[in-house]
Amino acid sequence: MADEKLVKSRQRVADHGEVFTPRWLVDDMLDLVGDETERIDSRFLEPACGSGNFLVPILERKLAVVQRRYGKSAFEKRHYALFGLMCIYGIELLADNATECRENLSGTFARVLKLDGSDPLTAAAEAVLASNIVQGDALAMTDAAGAPIVFPEWAYLGRGRYQRRDFRYDALTQRSAASEGLFAHFEEHEIFTPVRTYPVMTIEEIAA
To answer: Phi-psi bin for 192: left (phi > 0), alpha (psi -120 to 50), beta?
Structure first.
């Protein structure tokens, strides 16, 4: 896109090295892992997510798969679309970028699913993004308040029910360095036990 903004200001480039990746390059990079981007349940974490230059196209690809597989069932489409969103994570140092990232993801979700503000799925998506997109320091593994970053692991149990378990990001990175990736086989060691497990929830309960 000719009018795509890759820099917000020279000062931000100087202070934070902030330069956004153009969409054409994002698409080329995602094509290299195309199989993963077409899995609804594949989890993506962007540790410097900016305003969502990578995460929004990932969501668009996931929602396209949801449409192909579940488009004939409104119930399944809604629930798998939310699950696809649940599998997207980001960390962003700057508060305004983190807010923009959540807004861009929620706006994309609402646009593709043709939601309005009164739909509980809209509120559920915003609640998910409030937990999944964290303002913090990915290197220090702390949030804006200096506390350890905690990410939710979401699971879709079917029949409109979701399970949430929260894990510390520093524990997840230790696990991913030793094995397949985030949220894999936590039971192997006590450090990978969740810091909190929630009751099974519906869309309405997530939105509440």
So the answer is: alpha
pLDDT, tens digit, for every residue of 55-86? Answer: 999 999 999 999 999 999 999 999 999 999 99
- What sign results for the dihedral spanned by CA atoms 163, 164, 165, 169? positive
- Hey, what amino acid is at 32? L
Strand ranges in 26-140 using DSSP code E only, listed in sequence order:
44-46, 88-92, 133-137
Look at residues 205, 187, 183, 62 and name the one whose alpha carbon lies nearest to residue 128.
205
Note whether 104 and 26 are within 8 A (CB).
Answer: no
Q: Which pTM does this prediction carry?
A: 0.85
d(CA 149, CA 182): 14
18 token code pair: 């902030």
Burial label for 8, CB within 10 Å (0-12, 13-18, 19+), is middle
The rounded distance, in Å, linking the Cα atoms of 36 and 30 is 9
- For 143, the 3-state DSSP assignment is strand
Q: CB-based burial of residue 205 (10 Å sphere; 0-12 exposed, 13-18 middle, 19+ buried)?
A: middle
